[in-house]
Amino acid sequence: MSKTGMSKGGLPDLPPLREVVARHGLSASKALGQNFLFDEQLLDRIAAIPGKLAGANVLEVGPGPGGLTRALLRAGANVTAIEMDKRCLPALAELGEAFPGQLKVIEGDALKVDPATLFDGPWHVVANLPYNVGTALFTGWLSGKDWPPAWQSLTLMFQLEVAERIVAGTDSDAFGRLAVLAQWRACPRIAMKVHRSAFTPPPKVMSAIVHVTPAAMPEGVVPRMLERVTEAAFGQRRKMLRQSLKGLPGALDALEKLGIDAQRRAETLTVADFVAIARVLSPPA
Ligand code: SAM
């Protein structure tokens, strides 16, 4: 970083992101899913989505040259960032110097890091996720055995189509396993749509930021059973439940017990219906 002074607001004066990228030769790598955000106002708006972050722990996956990271640091967060691309580390080290004690960078693959080992207290996740690993990370955060989870909120960039699947309601083509997983014990919403032109380089499709907070976990449901029910039901989503669930022991009896017509198709059920089926099939605690 060229010398950083302090602005009037007491925050470090940082060089423009494009300058940082040019100086460190951070040409975007397609293989690493790199689409950078440089608009600082947009980045500040994203960092504001989880609410006040002053003094809060934040996990950021894929900080890249540090655009979102600097917005989180400006908001007063203590950021732990996991980045796979070694080339970004010097730029992130400079950012850490500008915000002493607020930024910790871990070099590595976020899929292999257990975030529970990173923080003493609760944490938020805020990330412009690499699209190739975004869904895997998201489903991992939502599938934990312990609930409420250690994370307080997730604020994540997805392709718009994926974001729509996460928040989808019954009776839509987008409604499926991802919606049930995201909604049965959490509340997801699309907080902001982001035009492709906001990124460098622009991706082919539109993006959206999904904000998720944990909700109460329904009683008597084994998470793995809910996964098995949705896997079977949506695995053959065009078929009637009578057909798609027949390989799952007890499932057809559960439908009858609950008064759910076995001639219906998976996408006509509500999240509450799936929870009810899984509850009937879950062994007593
Ligand atoms: N946060 C930056 C921004 O908003 O401009 C960069 C976002 S870019 C879409 C995704 C970032 O994730 C890249 O910096 C990429 O190197 C990093 N990345 C890709 N796969 C990763 C993984 N498995 N673990 C950690 N970081 C990864």
TrEMBL record:
S-adenosyl-L-methionine binds at N35, L37, G62, E83, D109, N128. It is an enzyme of class 2 (transferase). Keywords: Cytoplasm, Methyltransferase, RNA-binding, rRNA processing, S-adenosyl-L-methionine, Transferase. Residues 42-216 form the Ribosomal RNA adenine methylase transferase N-terminal domain. The keyword DNA damage does not apply. PROSITE patterns: RRNA_A_DIMETH, SAM_RNA_A_N6_MT. It is found in: Cytoplasm. CDD domains: AdoMet_MTases (cd02440). Pfam families: RrnaAD (PF00398). It catalyses: adenosine(1518)/adenosine(1519) in 16S rRNA + 4 S-adenosyl-L-methionine = N(6)-dimethyladenosine(1518)/N(6)-dimethyladenosine(1519) in 16S rRNA + 4 S-adenosyl-L-homocysteine + 4 H(+). Its main location: cytoplasm. Its EC number is 2.1.1.182. Belongs to the class I-like SAM-binding methyltransferase superfamily. rRNA adenine N(6)-methyltransferase family. RsmA subfamily. Specifically dimethylates two adjacent adenosines (A1518 and A1519) in the loop of a conserved hairpin near the 3'-end of 16S rRNA in the 30S particle. May play a critical role in biogenesis of 30S subunits. This is Ribosomal RNA small subunit methyltransferase A. The gene is rsmA.
